[in-house]
Amino acid sequence: MKVVTRNLLLLMIGVVLGVTLIQGGDVLAEREESSSNGIPLGELRVFTEVFSRLKKDYVVPVDDKVLLESAIRGMLSGLDPHSTYLNQEAYKELRIGTTGEFGGLGIEVGMEDGFVKVVSPIDDTPAQRAGVLPGDLIIRLSDTPVKGMTLNEAVKVMRGKPGTDITLTIVREGEQKPLQITITRDIIQVRSVKSRILDEGFGYVRVSHFQSNTNGFVREAVSKLRKESSGKLKGLVLDLRNNPGGMLNAAVEIGDAFLTKGLIVYTEGRVADSKLRFNANPDDILKGAPMVVLVNGGSASASEIVAGALQDHRRAVIMGEKTFGKGSVQTIVPMTNQTAVKFTTARYYTPSGRSIQAEGIVPDIALENVKVSASEDPAVSRVKESDLTKHLENENGSAKPQAGGANEGKEKKSNLAQTDFPLYEALNLLKGMSILQPQGS
Predict the structure, then answer these.
(1) pLDDT in tens, 240-256
(2) CB-based contact 267:276 (threshold 8 Å)
(3) pLDDT tens digits for 79-90?
(4) 263 and 316 in one domain?
(5) Is 211 in the same domain as 355?
(6) Is residue 441 part of a domain?
(7) Domain check: are 220 and 178 in the same one?
(8) Is the per-residue pLDDT at 2 higher than 50?
(9) Looking at the annotation, which residues are catalytic?
(10) Residues 246-266, buried b or exposed e (16+ Cβ, 10 A)?
(11) What's the number of domains the chain is made of?
C-alpha cells in the first residue's frame, strides 16, 4: 500500500505540473523541482491517504475514475459558484447551448447554500410558461432532494426525454410555503432576439441570451424596425431583463453596435491571456437615436457588460432594478478525454473601471417591477370643455380625429401600462428624450 500511495502521490504531482512522469530518475528530479516551486507535498500526501482509505474501507467498492472525478469536481466547486467540471455529456450540452438549441426546461441556474437557484427562465420555454421566476430556490426535483447534489447532477436530473414531466419544489420569497410546479420537458430552441414597434417611430428589441449569432440578429431587427418606421427610428428600448448572460464576445459585439468609439469592457486576471481590452468601432446602428435599456435582478454577466458600457458612455439611460452582479469571466478548457473544466480566469470592468462583481449595475432610474390595473370605468369618461353646453368653438376649427386613431392609440398605451409597466415607462422616457433631440439627427 505504501508503494501504491507513493506512486499515486508522484502521479498527482505530475498532473499538477502538466507533465507525464515515466522514468524513475525523471520522477525524482521532478519531485525535487516541485518542492522548490512550492507544490504542497504535505497536502498531496493527505489526498493520497484519503484516496487509499476510501479504496480500502468505503462501504461499497468505488472505481478510481469516480474518486478522481469527484476530487476534481470538489476542487473546482470549492472555488466559486461558476467554476465546475464538465463531463462528456455536460460539455457537449454546453457547446450546443451556445448555438441556441439544447434539451431541458429552459432555465439558467446556479447554486446557493446547497440548493439550485434560478438566475432566469429563458423566454418561450416550458419553465417560463409554467411560472418559474428569477430568484426561485429549487429544493426538490420530483422525489429527489437537491441538497447534496452538485449543480451538474441537478441539471442532469432536470434534463430528459421531451414530453416527460418533472415537478420542481420551489421556495419563493413572499410565499408562506414551498410551491410545486410541474413542467413538461421539451427541446429548447432559444430565439435570443425579438423586436416590434411600440409606437410610431419607437422600436423595441428584446435580447434574452447572448449567443454566437445574437449580434447579427440584433442588427437585422434594428434594420427591420427602421424600414417599418419609414426609414428612421426616433428611439429604441433595449430589453435585457432576465437575461442571464452568455458569451463575452457577443456582449462586446452588442455594445459595439450602439457605440462609435471608446472602451466597451476590459478584463483583468493573473495570466496574460486574461488581460483583454475591447474597443468600439464607429458604426452606431441607431445613428445617434436615444436609447433606454431595461434591466432587473435577473440581468447578469454579459447583460451587465452591455448595460455598463452604455451607461458609462452616456449612450443610454439604464432603467429598472439593480442587476445580478456577476462580474467574472469563465474560461472553458477542453481535456484530452472529451471533458472540460470551466473556471474563473478574470474579472471584467466597465469603461470607467467599475467592477460589477457582487455589486451589479445600479440603474439611472430605479423602477420597481409593479403591476398597474385600470382604475376608471371605461364607460364613464371625464367631462371636457367641448362637452359643455354653449362652449366657445376653437377659432382654428374643430379637429376631426381619424376613425379609431386617437382611441386606438390610447387603448394600446393603456394596455401596455397594465401588461408591462416598466416598458410603458421606458417608452414614455424615450419619447421625452426624442423631443429634445436636434431636428434632423
Answers:
(1) 999 999 899 999 999 99
(2) yes
(3) 998 999 998 888
(4) yes
(5) yes
(6) no
(7) no
(8) no
(9) 301, 312, 326
(10) bbbebbbbbbbbbbeeebbbb
(11) 3
- Please state whether the predicted TM-score (pTM) of the whole model is above 0.70: yes
Could you tell me which of 236, 227, 272, 276 has the C-alpha nearest to residue 254? 236
Beta carbons of 158 and 105 less than 8 angstroms apart: yes
Q: How far apart are CA 272 and CA 233, in angstroms?
A: 42
The torsion angle over the Cα atoms of residues 333, 334, 335 and 339, rounded to 10 degrees, is 110
Burial zone of 331 (CB within 10 Å; 0-12 exposed, 13-18 middle, 19+ buried):
middle
Residue 45: which domain range?
2-62
- Which candidate, 362, 230, 223, places its Cα nearest to that of 293? 362
Q: Which amino acid is at 270?
A: R
Burial 68-94 (b: 16+ CB within 10 A, else e): eeeebbeebbeeeebbbbbbeebbebe
Q: What confidence tier does 193 reach under pLDDT thresholds 50, 70, 90? A: very high
Of these ranges, 63-77, 81-95, 300-314, 396-410, the one predicted with the greatest mean pLDDT is 300-314
Same domain, 207 and 127: no
Evaluate whether 236 touches 291 at the Cβ level (below 8 Å).
yes
With contact defined as beta carbons under 8 Å apart, do 266 and 278 qualify? Answer: yes
What is the Cα–Cα distance from 182 to 167, expressed in whole angstroms? 4
